[in-house]
Design brief:
By secondary structure, this protein is mainly beta. It has two helices and 14 strands. The chain binds zinc ion (ZN). The site of zinc ion has 7 residues, from loops.
Length: 249
Protein backbone atom coordinates (compact mmCIF):
# COMPACT_ATOMS: atom_id res chain seq x y z
CA UNK A 1 0.00 0.00 0.00
CA UNK A 2 1.51 3.31 -1.07
CA UNK A 3 1.07 6.60 0.64
CA UNK A 4 -0.88 8.74 -1.80
CA UNK A 5 -0.76 12.50 -1.53
CA UNK A 6 -2.72 13.12 -4.72
CA UNK A 7 -5.77 15.27 -4.06
CA UNK A 8 -9.13 13.57 -3.85
CA UNK A 9 -12.10 14.85 -5.83
CA UNK A 10 -13.35 16.24 -2.56
CA UNK A 11 -10.30 17.21 -0.47
CA UNK A 12 -9.88 16.06 3.13
CA UNK A 13 -8.45 18.50 5.64
CA UNK A 14 -7.20 17.45 9.05
CA UNK A 15 -8.10 19.67 11.98
CA UNK A 16 -5.09 19.75 14.30
CA UNK A 17 -5.86 22.89 16.29
CA UNK A 18 -8.82 25.00 17.27
CA UNK A 19 -7.10 27.97 15.60
CA UNK A 20 -7.12 26.36 12.16
CA UNK A 21 -8.31 28.76 9.47
CA UNK A 22 -11.31 27.24 7.62
CA UNK A 23 -10.45 26.12 4.06
CA UNK A 24 -11.97 28.04 1.16
CA UNK A 25 -12.82 25.04 -1.08
CA UNK A 26 -16.47 24.96 -2.14
CA UNK A 27 -16.80 21.45 -0.65
CA UNK A 28 -14.37 19.57 1.58
CA UNK A 29 -14.15 16.92 4.29
CA UNK A 30 -12.77 17.82 7.69
CA UNK A 31 -11.30 15.00 9.78
CA UNK A 32 -11.42 15.92 13.47
CA UNK A 33 -10.88 14.18 16.77
CA UNK A 34 -14.56 13.31 17.07
CA UNK A 35 -15.97 12.95 13.54
CA UNK A 36 -15.53 13.28 9.80
CA UNK A 37 -17.43 16.37 8.65
CA UNK A 38 -18.67 17.38 5.22
CA UNK A 39 -18.26 21.14 4.91
CA UNK A 40 -19.41 23.67 2.31
CA UNK A 41 -18.61 27.24 1.40
CA UNK A 42 -21.86 28.08 -0.33
CA UNK A 43 -22.65 31.62 -1.49
CA UNK A 44 -25.51 31.68 1.02
CA UNK A 45 -23.97 29.77 3.94
CA UNK A 46 -20.92 28.08 5.40
CA UNK A 47 -21.72 24.63 6.85
CA UNK A 48 -20.15 21.60 8.53
CA UNK A 49 -22.27 18.51 9.16
CA UNK A 50 -21.27 14.97 10.14
CA UNK A 51 -20.39 13.29 6.84
CA UNK A 52 -23.22 10.93 5.84
CA UNK A 53 -20.68 8.61 4.16
CA UNK A 54 -16.95 8.33 3.71
CA UNK A 55 -15.26 9.63 0.53
CA UNK A 56 -16.21 7.32 -2.33
CA UNK A 57 -12.68 7.56 -3.78
CA UNK A 58 -11.43 5.46 -0.87
CA UNK A 59 -11.38 1.65 -0.98
CA UNK A 60 -13.20 -0.22 1.80
CA UNK A 61 -11.27 -1.91 4.59
CA UNK A 62 -12.14 -4.32 7.39
CA UNK A 63 -10.78 -5.29 10.78
CA UNK A 64 -8.32 -8.14 10.44
CA UNK A 65 -5.61 -10.05 12.27
CA UNK A 66 -2.80 -12.08 10.72
CA UNK A 67 -1.61 -14.12 13.70
CA UNK A 68 2.13 -14.57 14.19
CA UNK A 69 2.05 -15.89 17.76
CA UNK A 70 4.63 -18.48 18.75
CA UNK A 71 3.12 -21.97 18.44
CA UNK A 72 2.30 -23.57 21.79
CA UNK A 73 4.62 -26.58 22.05
CA UNK A 74 2.88 -29.96 22.24
CA UNK A 75 4.67 -31.12 25.40
CA UNK A 76 3.81 -27.91 27.26
CA UNK A 77 0.15 -28.06 26.24
CA UNK A 78 -0.11 -31.70 27.31
CA UNK A 79 1.38 -30.81 30.71
CA UNK A 80 -1.09 -27.95 31.04
CA UNK A 81 -3.97 -30.33 30.21
CA UNK A 82 -2.62 -32.70 32.89
CA UNK A 83 -2.72 -29.81 35.39
CA UNK A 84 -6.24 -28.77 34.34
CA UNK A 85 -7.42 -32.40 34.48
CA UNK A 86 -6.04 -32.80 38.01
CA UNK A 87 -7.69 -29.60 39.23
CA UNK A 88 -11.00 -30.64 37.70
CA UNK A 89 -11.00 -34.24 38.88
CA UNK A 90 -9.66 -33.60 42.39
CA UNK A 91 -11.31 -30.27 43.18
CA UNK A 92 -13.91 -29.52 40.48
CA UNK A 93 -11.86 -26.34 40.09
CA UNK A 94 -10.79 -24.20 37.16
CA UNK A 95 -7.17 -23.12 36.76
CA UNK A 96 -5.10 -20.77 34.63
CA UNK A 97 -1.59 -20.61 33.22
CA UNK A 98 0.25 -17.93 31.25
CA UNK A 99 2.63 -18.37 28.36
CA UNK A 100 5.63 -16.12 27.75
CA UNK A 101 8.04 -15.88 24.84
CA UNK A 102 11.66 -16.05 25.99
CA UNK A 103 13.47 -13.93 23.41
CA UNK A 104 16.95 -15.08 24.51
CA UNK A 105 16.37 -18.82 24.54
CA UNK A 106 13.78 -18.47 21.72
CA UNK A 107 11.23 -20.67 23.42
CA UNK A 108 7.81 -20.62 25.06
CA UNK A 109 7.75 -20.64 28.89
CA UNK A 110 4.79 -21.82 30.96
CA UNK A 111 4.03 -19.67 34.01
CA UNK A 112 1.57 -20.74 36.72
CA UNK A 113 0.47 -17.53 38.46
CA UNK A 114 -0.72 -17.40 42.06
CA UNK A 115 -4.43 -18.19 41.84
CA UNK A 116 -7.54 -18.88 43.87
CA UNK A 117 -10.18 -21.10 42.30
CA UNK A 118 -13.73 -20.91 43.60
CA UNK A 119 -16.07 -23.87 43.66
CA UNK A 120 -19.59 -24.29 44.91
CA UNK A 121 -19.78 -26.55 47.94
CA UNK A 122 -22.61 -28.53 46.38
CA UNK A 123 -25.42 -30.18 48.30
CA UNK A 124 -24.49 -33.72 47.41
CA UNK A 125 -20.81 -33.65 48.07
CA UNK A 126 -19.59 -32.64 44.62
CA UNK A 127 -19.18 -28.97 43.88
CA UNK A 128 -18.98 -27.24 40.56
CA UNK A 129 -16.52 -24.62 39.33
CA UNK A 130 -17.35 -20.93 39.72
CA UNK A 131 -14.23 -19.20 38.41
CA UNK A 132 -10.59 -18.50 39.07
CA UNK A 133 -8.82 -15.33 40.19
CA UNK A 134 -5.13 -14.86 39.61
CA UNK A 135 -2.42 -12.34 40.22
CA UNK A 136 -0.40 -11.33 37.17
CA UNK A 137 3.20 -12.17 38.08
CA UNK A 138 5.55 -9.30 38.78
CA UNK A 139 9.30 -9.28 38.24
CA UNK A 140 9.35 -11.62 35.26
CA UNK A 141 12.66 -11.56 33.37
CA UNK A 142 12.69 -8.60 31.01
CA UNK A 143 13.18 -10.85 27.98
CA UNK A 144 9.98 -12.79 28.76
CA UNK A 145 6.90 -11.42 27.02
CA UNK A 146 3.57 -12.85 28.10
CA UNK A 147 1.60 -13.45 24.91
CA UNK A 148 -1.11 -15.88 25.98
CA UNK A 149 -3.16 -17.26 28.82
CA UNK A 150 -4.93 -20.59 28.98
CA UNK A 151 -7.69 -21.33 31.48
CA UNK A 152 -9.92 -24.33 31.98
CA UNK A 153 -13.67 -24.69 32.08
CA UNK A 154 -13.39 -28.15 33.64
CA UNK A 155 -16.04 -30.44 32.13
CA UNK A 156 -18.03 -27.57 30.62
CA UNK A 157 -17.77 -26.25 27.07
CA UNK A 158 -14.86 -24.04 26.04
CA UNK A 159 -15.91 -20.50 25.14
CA UNK A 160 -15.16 -16.92 26.18
CA UNK A 161 -17.58 -16.00 28.97
CA UNK A 162 -18.58 -12.41 29.76
CA UNK A 163 -16.11 -12.38 32.66
CA UNK A 164 -13.40 -13.72 30.36
CA UNK A 165 -14.08 -11.08 27.71
CA UNK A 166 -14.11 -8.29 30.29
CA UNK A 167 -10.81 -9.44 31.79
CA UNK A 168 -9.21 -9.89 28.37
CA UNK A 169 -10.28 -6.56 26.89
CA UNK A 170 -7.06 -4.80 27.83
CA UNK A 171 -4.80 -7.85 27.53
CA UNK A 172 -3.63 -8.04 23.93
CA UNK A 173 -2.64 -11.55 22.92
CA UNK A 174 -3.97 -15.06 22.77
CA UNK A 175 -6.71 -16.25 25.09
CA UNK A 176 -7.23 -19.99 25.11
CA UNK A 177 -10.00 -21.86 26.92
CA UNK A 178 -9.86 -25.62 27.49
CA UNK A 179 -13.22 -27.29 28.10
CA UNK A 180 -14.60 -30.83 28.30
CA UNK A 181 -11.37 -31.71 30.09
CA UNK A 182 -12.71 -35.23 30.76
CA UNK A 183 -12.40 -35.97 27.05
CA UNK A 184 -9.29 -36.79 25.13
CA UNK A 185 -8.52 -34.54 23.38
CA UNK A 186 -10.36 -31.81 25.29
CA UNK A 187 -12.21 -28.97 23.54
CA UNK A 188 -10.02 -25.96 22.78
CA UNK A 189 -11.31 -22.45 22.04
CA UNK A 190 -8.87 -19.79 20.85
CA UNK A 191 -9.40 -16.06 20.46
CA UNK A 192 -6.95 -13.21 20.07
CA UNK A 193 -7.53 -9.72 21.42
CA UNK A 194 -5.88 -6.63 19.89
CA UNK A 195 -6.89 -3.07 20.76
CA UNK A 196 -10.13 -4.34 22.27
CA UNK A 197 -11.18 -6.30 19.15
CA UNK A 198 -11.66 -10.08 19.38
CA UNK A 199 -10.66 -12.50 16.65
CA UNK A 200 -11.62 -16.19 16.70
CA UNK A 201 -8.74 -18.40 15.57
CA UNK A 202 -8.68 -22.09 14.68
CA UNK A 203 -6.88 -24.01 17.43
CA UNK A 204 -4.51 -25.38 14.81
CA UNK A 205 -3.03 -21.94 14.20
CA UNK A 206 -1.45 -21.83 17.65
CA UNK A 207 -1.38 -25.41 18.88
CA UNK A 208 1.24 -27.79 17.67
CA UNK A 209 -0.12 -31.30 17.35
CA UNK A 210 -1.88 -32.53 20.47
CA UNK A 211 -0.84 -36.08 21.17
CA UNK A 212 -4.16 -36.99 22.73
CA UNK A 213 -2.59 -37.67 26.09
CA UNK A 214 -2.27 -35.33 29.01
CA UNK A 215 0.94 -35.78 30.95
CA UNK A 216 2.30 -35.24 34.44
CA UNK A 217 3.01 -31.68 35.49
CA UNK A 218 5.51 -30.21 37.97
CA UNK A 219 4.27 -30.68 41.57
CA UNK A 220 5.28 -27.11 42.46
CA UNK A 221 2.51 -25.80 40.20
CA UNK A 222 0.04 -26.83 42.92
CA UNK A 223 1.86 -24.65 45.48
CA UNK A 224 0.54 -21.57 43.68
CA UNK A 225 -3.07 -22.77 43.64
CA UNK A 226 -5.71 -22.68 46.33
CA UNK A 227 -9.34 -23.78 46.16
CA UNK A 228 -12.07 -22.10 48.14
CA UNK A 229 -15.72 -23.03 48.50
CA UNK A 230 -18.46 -20.46 48.28
CA UNK A 231 -20.36 -22.16 51.09
CA UNK A 232 -19.44 -21.25 54.64
CA UNK A 233 -16.93 -18.46 54.85
CA UNK A 234 -17.31 -16.00 51.98
CA UNK A 235 -13.97 -16.26 50.30
CA UNK A 236 -14.96 -15.38 46.77
CA UNK A 237 -13.91 -12.86 45.72
CA UNK A 238 -11.68 -12.31 48.70
CA UNK A 239 -7.92 -12.59 48.16
CA UNK A 240 -5.94 -9.81 49.82
CA UNK A 241 -5.29 -6.90 47.50
CA UNK A 242 -7.98 -8.20 45.23
CA UNK A 243 -7.89 -5.03 43.13
CA UNK A 244 -4.72 -6.37 41.54
CA UNK A 245 -6.30 -9.75 40.80
CA UNK A 246 -7.81 -10.69 37.49
CA UNK A 247 -10.77 -13.00 37.10
CA UNK A 248 -11.92 -15.69 34.70
CA UNK A 249 -14.86 -17.98 34.84
ZN1 LIG B 1 -13.69 -18.85 30.99
Amino acid sequence: MQRDDLPLITPIYIKKSMAMRPPTDPVYYLLTSNCLYLCRNHPHYQSCVPAPRWPTELAPHAASLAARFPPIPQDQFERICGFFGHMSEEHRAEAIVLLAWDSIDQMVRTIVPQQVSAVSGGNWGRGYPIGVKYRFPQNLPKHWTVFSDIHSHCTMAAYASQTDQHDEEHSPGLHVVVGHIQREPPQVHVEAVVDGARFRLPASTVLADYGGRRTDFPAEWLERVSVETLDGTPVWPAPAGQDTWKARE
